[in-house]
Specification:
The protein has 304 residues and is α+β, with helices and mostly antiparallel strands. The chain has two domains: 3-111, At1g16640 B3 domain; 114-303, Restriction Endonuclease. Helix content is 28%, strand content 26%. The chain has helices spanning 71-80, 82-85, 131-146, 156-169, 206-217, 231-247, 259-269; strands spanning 3-6, 15-18, 34-41, 45-53, 61-64, 92-99, 102-108, 118-126, 173-174, 188-190, 193-197, 223-229, 277-284. It has a seven-stranded mixed beta sheet. Strands 8-13-12-11-10-9 form a six-stranded mixed beta sheet, with helices on both faces. The chain is elongated and about 70 Å long. It starts with a strand and ends in a 20-residue tail after the last strand.
């Protein structure tokens, strides 16, 4: 696991705030203390920077490099991330841990993300044991996901719209009633499989499970598939959303559902479901990666 930070103007001038989910990745110090870490960048260049945890309400962890000793790093950042400096949103700075307290900086610029596509990065299977039908199903859904290119400056609305168009192109019915008696609508359905795509607020996805169960007990489906971004991709989209909100004069931006939350909660919820359910976590794949090479490995199946 590497840490990807959406680059903003503050990244080019002073430092980076670490999301709490990644604080262990940096072996973050205690509240009110700091330590030095080494950042590797450019052509075998390095600099020592400060990693600190603030003694404030949220106890933020920050990497600070706004000193004369870090001028080489600052110059490199401003040279590499020219699009961000010009006001563009969508470039990233990736931190790769090389050894304790040593991190390689990997720039992901607008040119690097030009050919990047989404991918299915993680999965949960519950009561789904038919390997042949499951493989065929996942190949189609994975093909739909990985046909969608990553777009800098775009947030969750863009990916919802792209997924909707692509599912329809593959012959999936969209936004029909989960059961005829209610106006509760599913996202997509095809040959007994119902798919719900959840990029929304973390509380709203419980309704997706209700739609699965209503459809299943009515004999309309035999499998429910929940698609949600991984934590890292959700965090990326939230950061893009926050920056776009700030540009429009808004100071707040709501959070987003993620695969890790779904997995954590499903281990406690699963006993109330008497139906097959698959949960897929989608993420930003590597530029130039193949659309579909191998079946998705059931990475978390044994835990359920």
């Amino acid at each position: 696991m590497n840490f990807k930070h959406l680059v903003g103007k503050s990244t080019l001038a002073e430092g980076v705030t670490i999301h709490k989910h990644f604080e262990p990745f940096f072996d973050s110090p205690q509240v009110g203390t700091s330590k030095e870490i080494t950042l590797l960048f450019g052509h075998q260049e390095s600099t020592r920077v400060t990693l600190r945890r603030l003694n404030n309400l949220r106890q933020h962890v920050q990497i600070k490099y706004a000193t004369k000793a870090n001028i080489g790093l600052l110059n490199w950042l401003n040279e590499v991330f020219k699009a961000t400096k010009a006001g563009r949103i969508g470039e990233f700075l990736e931190f790769k841990k090389v050894s304790p307290d040593v991190y390689q900086l990997i720039p992901i610029t607008t040119s690097d993300t030009h050919d990047a596509r989404l991918c299915v990065a993680d999965s949960i299977y519950y009561k789904s044991s038919d390997e042949t039908s499951r493989k065929t199903l996942l190949e189609e859904i994975a093909g739909i996901v990985s046909s969608i290119g990553f777009q800098v400056d775009e947030g969750q609305t863009y990916y919802n719209q792209k997924l909707m168009r692509t599912f329809v192109e593959y012959g999936w019915e969209k936004e029909g009633k989960a059961i005829p008696e209610l106006d509760l609508k599913f996202d997509f359905r095809k040959t007994g499989v119902q798919v719900e795509v959840e990029f929304g607020n973390a509380r709203s996805y419980y309704q997706d499970y209700i739609k699965f169960m209503l459809s299943y007990v009515s004999g309309l489906i035999f499998l429910g598939v929940l698609i949600t971004p991984t934590f890292e991709f959700a965090n990326t989209l939230c950061e893009i959303g926050r920056q776009k909100a700030l540009l429009k004069g808004r100071r707040s931006y709501s959070g987003m559902m993620n695969f890790e939350k779904a997995y954590r909660e499903f281990t406690h919820l699963k006993d109330i479901f008497d139906m097959p359910i698959i949960i897929l976590g989608i993420d930003l794949g590597s530029p130039g990666a193949a659309v579909w090479d191998e079946p998705i490995a059931p990475l978390r199946e044994q835990a359920l």
